[in-house]
Amino acid sequence: MSAPTTVADAIVSVEDVHLRFGGVVSLAGVSLTQERGEILSVIGPNGAGKTSLFNCLTGVYHPQMGKIIFRPSPDDEVSIIGRKPHRVNQVGIARTFQTSRLFNALTAFENVKIGVESRQHTGPIGAMLHLPRTVREEKDSDARTVELLDFVGLRRRGDEIASGLPYGDQRRLEIARALGTGPKLLLLDEPAAGTNPSEKLALEQLIRRVNRELGVSVLLIEHDMRLVMSVADRVTVLNFGRVIASGTPGEVQRDPAVVEAYLGRVDTEEPGGEG
Amino acid sequence: MSRISLSSFRRSQNARRLAAWIIGALVLAVMTGPSGTTTTPTAGFTGSLLHPRVLGYLAFGVVMWALSTARVRSRDRVHSATRGVQELREKLLGDNRVRYGAYLILLVAAILVPTALNSFWQEVLVDQIGVFVLLAVGLNVVVGYAGLLDLGYIAFYAIGAYSAAYWTGALPVHPILHLNPFYVIPLAILAAVAAGVILGVPTLRLRGDYLAIVTLGFGEIISIVATNLSSVTGGAQGIIGIPHFSVHLSSFHYQWGLSNLPYYYLLLGFVVIVLVAFRSLENSRVGRALAAIREDEVAAEASGVGVLKYKVMAFAIGASTSGFAGLLFASKISFVAPGDFTVQLSILILVLVTFGGMGSLPGAVLGAAVLQWAPEYLRNHPILGFQQQDLYIYLGALLVVMMIFRPSGIWPSRRRRRELALAEEGVGTADAMSGSSDPAAGPG
Amino acid sequence: MCIIHPFWSLLVSGLSDGFLYALIALGYTLVYGVLQLINFAHSEVFMSGGFAGYFILNRTIGSHTPHGLDSIFMVVLGTVGGAVFGGLIAYVLERAAYRPLRRRNAPRIAFLISAIGASYFLYNLAGKEFGRDAVSIKAPFNLDGSAFRLFGAEVQTYQVVVAVAAIVMLVGLDRMVAVTRLGKGIRAVAQDADTASLMGVNIDRVISQTFVIGGLLGGAAGFLFGLNYGVVYSMGFTPGLKAFTAAVLGGIGNIRGAVVGGLVLGLVENFGSACIQTSWRDVIAFGILVAVLIIRPTGLLGERLGRSA
């Protein structure tokens, strides 16, 4: 049930990636593809390798084997493996973290602005001399930052210190910062973890808006099944570093391998079981 | 918790604090007491402790303990008082007119006051204060903005000084054309920046504590090379005869000589330029990127900030001011020798920056000015006088005390104080020391 | 070639220096293991051991160089005295300069700066109190005497003493870490301090004791070093830096690594300086330091925080 589907316009394809730490195998031949413009969710029990997969996708980990090809546009192809994380970001992949990693002592505005500025070119000379290009870039990045804060609903909280924001707002801020870097693909690592139901609902809507209004493909790790089922176009299931199922949310939900992975083997005969 | 155990707990806290103050007072007595010698090694101790003066120190210790106990008890009152002062300061300085007004007054004072000083103090102003303000401001970029501990910082100063020697033809090896030290300024800065990049690229990937040691090792290597490569560097005895600055443009001629004031104004000009430039840097894309790196390197990298690039940049920027300072000083005293570039000096500059406030531009200036001025002023003071060699004892103790009681410095930047407060609550690291890229928090 | 003719004597002196480096390096590695902190002031702990040995021996040895059992007694006295004083200084250091920072959860850079400050303080205080000239310890045995010959190379009594003392202490340490509760505590705290404290390990006490052990070894090394090279307030800086190199070379946090690193450094330094001028000798060690940190920071045996082997 885990044959890689050939996708018409894949924005990213992971091909047979193996990742090992000393004796511990984290990813044992993972392959997946994501179509441009879709919301793909990666789920699986704890320790299945989801965050490791993210880290490979963002250049933090270097898999021992396999390929990761990213296509920022249909006729442009980049290999991810071996690139440093900030280069991966500049090519068009942004991420959030499982536990939010904001720049805590900085304001919300500054957090997002740093993301936006990463696309600019002002250097120390320009900064110290207040060159016209620098001044222009400052104005542009300020405007863009306000736009993004507005988009995630934090416009009024721009001047607050990041660590002082309520948890749900912190997660949204992280997304805003990631969006500031202008990505084609956004990786969200458990964005709903630790949030309450109303925050989850808001996140759901935000993710959909990111996908539909901004045209950003989203790759989402989540444990909250309700969120996954409602937001994802397709779902890939990992267990023990392998893909065990892939398809629409409904298909995956009914897949016995998936049920077993989460609940353990049920020792009753299964009617028409495929195993 | 019953009343009884609460008060006995407090009593033991008090007892411990008393012990700490007493021990501190005794240490202070020894520090300020007579010295021993190799033949009479206990003379220092007996002279400090078995002497009636120790009673004064003990009394001081007890008084300070009493004050600190009262402070603890009325902690809230003290807190609100200091907070009031802080808010006042922020409100005043937040107002741009007040701030620029203050800068103007300071600038005018900086221009006029030195003319009224005697030649001793003018020399102190240049040699001790001015040069070190420049060095502190430069190191502040490395340690304060980027959070990197560079213990070999004095090496860039040395490069500036030896550039002066080289391009003016004072070294055994001669350059293609002989220049006046004034025109060597861009070359010295360039050399220092290049050295910063060359040193930085391989080492700035390292964890913070390793970086400190590596820079220390590099500094030592350069020192040994400078001492032994006599054919190039003039060896241990150094190079003499470096000419003073002079400028000869079409209508404008000026020759710096032995008088201190002209050097002072040159330094002042450079310091003002650097301060304006660095302040702009702080509030720019570069400054924010460095703040991001300090906050969370991994998140910064994931947000498109090239961490290594910015660290090297900070290193190079810090090196540039150091190089200029070296050039200026070498040309002023016409002399350069490897013995002037010791680890002690690198540490001294670190003390200046730490005391003033890491990451704070006014802090760096203030810290350098105060800590360089105070020894000169106090040296012959009847009560607080001390011997020159003992100075570093006080500086070392100051570093430890600062870290324990006031790590943000005497004039901290707001951001820095916030970072430290957050770090103490367990949020973030407040420095770029961790260096590891392990974002894999938790299962996955 | 320059190293072939004196090969065996270079080997002997390399090992002798190496043992001293190993003893000092252990102080760095142990503290790094439990605190992830480079204890800059360890070089002053080393120095204080030297001075302790100096004071003790110069009061107890008369005008004649002792020999036989008296010699051994004096050596042990000096070593133990140096060790105890080193341990004491290390203990005070931890309580005064590091523990307050741990209490308030200070960022790492604060620890480093405090360490530098403490080192600076002790260094200059020693200079003030003990004068700035070097002194020599009254010899407990004939320092120039040779014990035996190894393939034609002379092995000095001094080198034998250093080797024996070092081996005794190293074996003792190895067993202690492996077998005793303290040793287990050290390994636990080095691996995961939070969990260790949840399991009932008294973190403060383990850290204190780790410092003391490192201080014992460093202080003893100070005395042994001082026997041959004299004692002076600045004696700690260069050996300290070299010993840190040894610790990193072997893999910081790794106890056996510190020993391996020390011996390797001693050998490389001696063999290397046979071919170049003596004034360049220190560049070898510093060059290794820079090279190891840049090329292979985990060291030869790999960084092992929490495992002693």
The shape of chain B is globular
Which structural class do the helices and strands of chain B define?
A: mainly alpha
- Compute the number of strand runs of chain B: 4
What structural category do the secondary elements of chain A indicate? alpha/beta
Q: How far from one another are the termini of chain B?
A: 43 Å
- Widest beta sheet: strand line-up of chain A: 6-7-8-3-9-10
Number of domains of chain A: 2
Q: How many DSSP H or I helices of chain B?
A: 18
Relative helix content of chain B: 55-70%
Average pLDDT, all residues of chain B: 84
Taking pLDDT < 50 over at least 5 consecutive residues as the criterion, the unreliable ranges of chain A are none
Count of the separate structural domains of chain B: 2
Task: Give a brief description.
The complex is a heterotrimer of chains A (275), B (444) and C (309). In chain B, 70% of the residues lie in helices and 2% in strands. Chain B has 444 residues and is mainly α.
Question: What does this protein structure show overall?
Answer:
The complex is a heterotrimer of chains A (275), B (444) and C (309). Chain A is of the alpha/beta class and 275 residues long. In chain A, 38% of the residues lie in helices and 24% in strands. Chain A has a 6-stranded mixed β-sheet with strand order 6-7-8-3-9-10, with helices on both faces. In chain A, helix 7 (197-213) links the parallel strand 7 (185-189) and strand 8. In chain A, helix 3 crosses helix 5, helix 3 runs parallel beside helix 6 and helix 5 (132-152) packs across helix 6 (167-180). The longest helix of chain A has 21 residues, at 132-152. Chain A is globular, with a radius of gyration of 20 Å. The mean pLDDT of chain A is 88. Chain B has 444 residues and is mostly helical. Chain B folds into 2 domains: 2-73, no CATH class; 121-410, no CATH class. Chain B has 18 helices and 4 strands. Chain B has helices at 3-32, 43-49, 53-73, 75-94, 96-112, 119-145, 154-167, 181-203, 208-228, 230-233, 260-282, 285-295, 297-302, 307-333, 343-356, 361-378, 391-405, 414-424; strands at 239-240, 246-248, 253-255, 335-336. In chain B, a hairpin with a 4-residue loop joins strand 2 and strand 3. Residues 435-444 of chain B have low confidence and may be disordered. Chain C has 309 residues and is mainly α. Chain C contains 11 helices and 2 strands, in the order H-H-H-H-E-E-H-H-H-H-H-H-H. Chain C has helices at 7-35, 42-60, 69-103, 108-130, 157-179, 181-191, 193-198, 203-229, 237-250, 255-273, 281-295, and strands at residues 146-150, 153-156. In chain C, strands 1-2 form a two-stranded antiparallel sheet. In chain C, a hairpin with a 2-residue loop joins strand 1 and strand 2. Chain C starts with 6 loop residues before the first helix and ends in a 14-residue tail after the last helix. In chain C, 58% of the residues are buried. The model of chain C is unreliable at 305-309 (pLDDT under 50). At the A-B interface, helix 1, helix 2, helix 3, helix 4 and helix 5 of A face helix 11, helix 12, helix 13, helix 14 and helix 18 of B.
